[in-house]
Design goal:
heterodimer, A: about 280 residues, mainly alpha, two-stranded antiparallel ribbon, about 75% helix, globular, B: about 375 residues, OB fold (Dihydrolipoamide Acetyltransferase, E2P), 8-stranded antiparallel β-sheet, 6-stranded mixed β-sheet, 8 helices, elongated, disordered N terminus
C-alpha cells in the first residue's frame, strides 16, 4: 500500500490531464490530417499536406506572433525586474500588499481589461483626445490598430506572470551575500551583475516561459487593440475553427504552433536553463 | 604574551614614531529611527585597535557590538563620531573601497560559485593578474585545509568547511584588518573549539589584525589579546582576558564573564592593609585597602573557584563568610555548591573533584567559605 501511495496521489490530476488534455490532443491531431467540410463531415485521409499548406499561407502571421511574443517578453522583463527587485529588497513589511497590487488586474476579466484599453487608446479617448485638442499630437495620430498597441496590451496582460517568478527568485537571495560582495571590493553595479542577477536568473527563466508562450498564442489583444496588419496566428486559428469551420486547418495550425514553441523552449532551456549560465556569470 | 609583531626598526637611529593603530573609533554613535522613535544602538564608543592585534567585541545580543563592526566595515555610517583605518578617516567610504574584509555570521558564501570562485572573488574585483590569483587562492586553500575541494559548491559542504571557505575568501585579499562576526556561532561545540585554536593559529601565521565579535565569553577569553566588553551601546571594560576575568570593572562585566558572586557591604575600618566589611552574623569580607575609607558602601565580587569550603572557621587575614549549603551539583571535573548566607546573598562555589578532596559538603550543612583578600574587588555598579 505504501508503495502505491505516490501513484494514488497522482491519480486525480493524472486522470484529469488524460481526459481533458491527452484525449482532445489525440483527437485534434487526428482532425488535422482529415479532409472534408463541416456539412458533409470530415474523413481521415492522413492528408499531411495541410501542414505544408498552412505554413506557406500563414507564414507572415506565424513570424509576427513570434516577433510580438519576443518583443512583449523582453519589454516585460525590463518592466518586471525593477518592480520585483523593489518589492523584494525595499518592500519591507508591505511586500504582501505590493504583490497584491501586482495581481489586482486579475480580479477583472481579461477581455474586459483589454476592452478598457481600447477606450483609453481610442482616437478621441481620454488620452489622445486632450492631447489632440491641445495640438500636442497630430489629428491623424492614432494608437489603436498599431503594433505598439498590441504589444502593449500583451505586456499589460501578462506582466504579473513575469513579476512573480522574478520576485520569488530575488526574495530568496540572502542580502548578506550582497554585502559580502560589496565587502570584497565589488561596487554596487558589479555586486548586482555578479551576484543578484545570476541568482535571479532562474526566476527570469520561469517568467519567460510563463509569458512568451501565452503571448505568442494570444488572440484577444490583436483582435481588440490591433488592426488587419496585426493579425496573429491565434486569430487565424480562431477564425478557422469558429468562423470558417475548417477544423483540419485550425488543428494543423495549432499543432504547428505548439511544435514550434516546444522546440524553441527546449532550445532555450538547453541554452539557459542549466547551470552553465550561472557558471559563466560566476567569472 | 602579546601576539603583536614586535617592531623591526629597533636598529635604526631615528626616534620611533608611535605606530598608527589599525582601527580607531572616536566617540562613535549610531542612531536608528524605528517607528518614529530614535534608538541608540551605539552610544559613544572610542577605542583603538593595534596592528596585528586579536581584538574582541564581547557582549550580549543587542549590545551594539555588531553595529560597531558594521561601521568599521562600512555597511553603516556613524551618526556621530569618526572611524579611522590606519589613521585615515573613512567616513563616507563605501565598503568596497575599505581595505578590511569581513567573515559573516552566516558565512554569506556565493551559492552559485564553487569554492575556488568564492575565494577568488575579491582578487578578481581588484584586477589581480590571473596567475597571481591562481597562486594566492591555492595557497589560501592550503592554509584552511581545503585543497582538493575547489570545485565544490557551498551547499555541498559541511558547516565547518563553509566556515573555512568564508575565512579564506576574506583572508586571501590580505586585508589590513579582518572583521569576524560571530563566525563560529553556527558550529557545534567540538568543532567550535577546534576552530578557535585554528583561527588563532591562522591569525598568528598571517599577522593580520582580527576584530572578533562574539557573545561567547569563553571564545573571547581563549583567543583575544584584548577584549572590549559591551553593554547597551557602551564599552564597559576594555582590557586583556585575564584582567577582564580577574578584575571585572563593573557588575555587568563580573556577571557576564563567567560566574561571579556579588556581596554588598560597607567598609567598617582599615586594618593591616585591608578594608574590612562586616556582614554581621555571616562573617566578614576583606579587600585590599587602597582607595577605600571607613563608611564607603561597596559591592564586592569573588569568583566561585577562588572560594574554599570548610567546616571550621578559617584563621588569618582572609575573607570568611558562613552559610548553609542549599544545593550541590556534580559537574564532572568539579562540584558546584550554592551556599545561602541567610537572606544576605546566595553564593556559588566551585570545588575541583581532585582525588584527595576531603571536604565534601552535603545539602543542609553549615559551612565556612573563605578566600584570599586579593581575589575580591570592589566594583562600580
Amino acid at each position: 500500500m505504501r508503495r502505491l501511495t505516490p501513484y494514488l496521489l497522482v491519480l486525480p490530476g493524472g486522470l484529469w490531464l488524460l481526459v481533458f488534455l491527452v484525449v482532445p490532443m489525440v483527437f485534434m491531431a487526428s482532425v488535422s490530417t482529415q479532409e472534408g467540410d463541416v456539412v458533409n463531415g470530415f474523413v481521415q485521409t492522413f492528408h499531411f499536406a495541410t501542414y505544408g499548406e498552412v505554413l506557406a499561407q500563414y507564414q507572415t502571421q506565424f513570424l509576427r506572433s513570434v516577433g510580438y511574443g519576443l518583443a512583449g517578453t523582453v519589454i516585460s522583463i525590463l518592466i518586471a525586474y525593477p518592480v520585483a527587485y523593489w518589492i523584494a529588497f525595499k518592500g519591507g513589511s508591505r511586500k504582501a500588499t505590493y504583490l497584491l497590487l501586482v495581481l489586482l488586474p486579475f480580479f477583472v476579466s481579461f477581455v474586459l481589461r483589454t476592452v478598457s484599453w481600447k477606450f483609453l487608446l481610442a482616437d478621441d479617448g481620454i488620452v489622445l483626445g486632450p492631447l489632440k485638442s491641445a495640438g500636442l499630437v497630430g489629428e491623424d495620430f492614432h494608437l489603436l490598430q498599431t503594433t505598439a498597441a498590441v504589444i502593449g496590451g500583451l505586456v499589460y496582460n501578462y506582466l504579473p506572470f513575469m513579476v512573480l517568478p522574478i520576485y520569488v527568485a530575488l526574495e530568496r537571495v540572502n542580502p548578506t551575500v550582497i554585502e559580502a560582495a560589496r565587502d570584497l571590493y565589488a561596487p554596487r553595479a558589479v555586486a548586482f551583475a555578479k551576484i543578484v542577477l545570476p541568482l535571479s536568473l532562474p526566476g527570469v527563466f520561469a517568467g519567460v516561459l510563463m509569458t512568451f508562450v501565452p503571448m505568442t498564442s494570444d488572440y484577444v489583444n490583436a483582435a481588440i487593440l490591433g488592426g488587419p496588419e496585426n493579425t496573429m496566428i491565434g486569430n487565424i486559428i480562431q477564425t478557422e475553427y469558429l468562423v470558417n469551420n475548417d477544423y483540419p486547418v485550425g488543428a494543423a495550425l495549432s499543432f504547428t504552433l505548439m511544435a514550434a514553441m516546444l522546440i524553441g523552449i527546449f532550445a532555450y532551456a538547453r541554452a539557459l536553463g542549466t547551470e552553465n549560465v550561472l557558471e559563466a556569470a560566476a567569472r | 604574551m602579546s601576539e603583536t609583531q614586535a617592531g623591526t626598526g629597533a636598529a635604526t637611529a631615528a626616534p620611533a614614531l608611535p605606530p598608527v593603530p589599525a582601527i580607531e573609533l572616536d566617540g562613535v554613535v549610531k542612531e536608528y529611527v524605528a517607528r518614529g522613535e530614535t534608538v541608540q544602538a551605539v552610544r559613544g564608543v572610542s577605542l583603538s585597535i593595534a596592528e596585528g592585534e586579536f581584538f574582541s567585541l564581547l557582549g550580549p545580543s543587542g549590545c551594539g557590538k555588531t553595529t560597531t563592526m558594521r561601521m568599521i566595515a562600512g555597511f553603516e555610517e556613524p551618526t556621530r563620531g569618526g572611524v579611522r583605518l590606519h589613521g585615515q578617516d573613512v567616513t563616507g567610504v563605501p565598503p568596497n573601497k575599505r581595505d578590511v574584509n569581513m567573515v559573516f555570521q552566516s558565512y554569506a558564501l556565493f551559492p552559485h560559485m564553487d569554492v575556488w570562485e568564492n575565494v577568488a572573488f575579491g582578487l578578481r574585483r581588484k584586477k589581480v593578474p590571473e596567475a597571481e590569483i591562481r597562486r594566492r587562492v591555492g595557497e589560501m586553500l592550503e592554509i584552511v585545509d581545503l585543497t582538493g575541494r575547489e570545485k565544490r559548491r557551498p551547499r555541498e559542504m559541511s558547516g565547518g568547511q563553509q566556515q573555512r571557505v568564508a575565512l579564506a575568501r576574506a583572508l586571501v585579499n590580505n586585508p589590513r584588518a579582518l572583521l569576524l562576526d560571530e563566525p563560529l556561532g553556527a558550529l557545534d561545540l567540538k568543532l567550535r573549539q577546534a576552530m578557535q585554536i585554528e583561527l588563532k593559529r591562522i591569525q598568528r601565521e598571517v599577522g593580520i589584525t582580527f576584530v572578533y565579535v562574539t557573545h561567547d565569553q569563553s571564545e573571547a577569553l581563549t583567543m583575544s589579546d584584548r577584549i572590549a566588553v559591551m553593554n547597551d551601546g557602551l564599552v564597559e571594560q576594555l582590557a586583556g582576558p585575564r584582567e577582564i576575568y580577574e578584575r571585572p570593572a563593573t557588575a555587568f562585566v563580573a556577571g557576564f564573564i563567567g560566574t561571579s558572586n556579588l556581596l554588598n557591604g560597607a567598609v567598617e575600618r582599615i586594618a593591616g592593609g585591608f578594608a574590612v566589611l562586616p556582614l554581621g552574623e555571616h562573617g566578614r569580607v576583606l579587600v585590599e585597602a587602597a582607595g577605600h575609607s571607613p563608611g564607603d558602601a561597596v559591592a564586592v565580587t569573588v569568583r566561585p573557584e577562588k572560594i574554599t569550603i570548610s567546616t571550621e572557621e578559617p584563621a588569618g587575614d582572609v575573607s570568611a563568610v558562613r552559610g548553609t549549603v542549599s544545593e550541590v551539583v556534580y559537574l564532572g571535573t568539579y562540584n558546584s555548591y550554592a551556599v545561602k548566607l541567610g537572606d544576605v546573598a546566595e553564593m556559588t562555589v566551585f570545588q575541583q573533584n581532585a582525588h584527595d578532596s576531603t571536604t565534601t559538603a552535603e545539602r543542609g550543612d553549615s559551612v565556612w567559605l573563605s578566600w584570599q583578600p586579593q581575589h575580591s574587588y570592589a566594583i562600580g555598579s
